[in-house]
Amino acid sequence: MRRVRDVPKRHALKLLAVVVLGAGTAIAALLGHPELATALIGVLLATIAVVIVRLGPRVAQQIRTQTLENRKLANRIETAQRQTLTAVENERAVLAKLDNRLNTSLSTQRQLLASLERQLVSAVEDERRSGAERQHELLAGFKQTQNKIEESARPLSSLGSKITAVSDKITSVQRHFDAKLVTLRWEVVRENEALLQLFERFDPRAPMPTSGGWALSPTGLLELLTLIDRRQPRVLLELGSGTSTIWIAYALEKTGGRLISIDHDEEYAARTRLMLQMHGLDHVAEVRVAPLSPLDVAGESYNWYGVGAFEDVEEVDLLLVDGPPAAVGPNSRYPALHAIAPKLAARSLVLLDDVERADEQEIARRWAEEFPGLTRETSLFNRQAIFTYTPPQSSE
After folding, report:
1. Dihedral angle over CA of 129, 133, 135, 138, nearest 10
2. Strand pairing of 384-389 and 374-377?
3. Smallest Cα–Cα separation from 367: which of 376, 358, 356, 355?
4. What is the rounded distance in angstroms from the CA atom of residue 145 to the CA atom of residue 139?
5. Of 320, 324, 331, 340, which Cα lies nearest the Cα of 365?
6. ∠349-354-360 over CA atoms, to 5°?
7. I want to staple 344 with a disulfide (CB 3.0 to 4.6 A). Which of 31, 202, 229, 348 is the partner?
8. 233 upstream amide cis, omega within 30 of 0
9. pLDDT tens digits for 87-104?
10. In sequence order, what are the residues at sequence separation of 6 or more whose Cβ sits closer than 8 angstroms to the Cβ of residue 287?
11. Which chain positions lie within coiled-coil regions (predicted)?
């Protein structure tokens, strides 16, 4: 629109005339007037030729001007392109440098990361090994401590067991002593009662020796004297003299029997003889000394009374075994029945004192097994084992 406005007015009228002629030619042709159309074409061509001739220099000038502007524009575009290319190349160079720097930085970072990773792995591995070593040391120390604790606990455990055992033993002993104390209380009462009964039986002519201890207890004496009253033995053989000798002599004085008492100790035998004389019983009782000497019985050797002291003894109705003392040796009274059995009368009595002791219990058991004619009787006070003996020839 700007270019049309710049055309002079006269040139515009000419262009308008050309347009009108062209339009008239087209209308004549359409209306079927060829001659008119041809004439109009001729006029149109002539007009165009005139316009061209008139407009040629200006158009040429404008073309040259436009061409010059186009060249300038092309130069500017080329310059801009070169500048753009230069800028692009510069940018590429900068980007290349940045890329190199970035690659270098990345490589450095990768190397640094790899180094850090190696250091971390090495540190972790060292820590793991160190931790494992510390764990091993701790476990070893714990094991040693545990062993020491166990070693320390063993004596304590053993001590605890010993303390328990001692405590149990003390409890057992305490119970035993409590039971023994109760038994002793009853025994004191029982022994006192037996002693009173003994003195009621006789009217001693001199002070009586004490009972108990090494001598027969009052209950043992009471049971023995009761048997003497019932059986009235003609001959009573006593192994081990002492207090019992005096009481037996008083009982036999009433029944008309005879007492032979054997003792291995000369001094003790002399003391017993003196007491018999004081009581006026030496006509009833005889005390013989028979020193201890070896005696073989059932393949075993024992220290027992010399058998020569029994050579003239026959038809013994009651045998009282109250010696030798236990201090002589184990089962020291075991040979008695083996040595005296041939001298026992038919239906005789055998009394073994102190059967509360283990040795005497063993002796009583062995006698019952070894002598077919021996029968154990009931004892009132369980101080003696009482047997009835029937020699084999008498039973036939």
Report:
1. -160
2. antiparallel
3. 376
4. 10
5. 331
6. 85
7. 348
8. no
9. 778 877 877 787 777 677
10. 241, 245, 261, 262, 263, 269, 272, 273, 276
11. 63-126
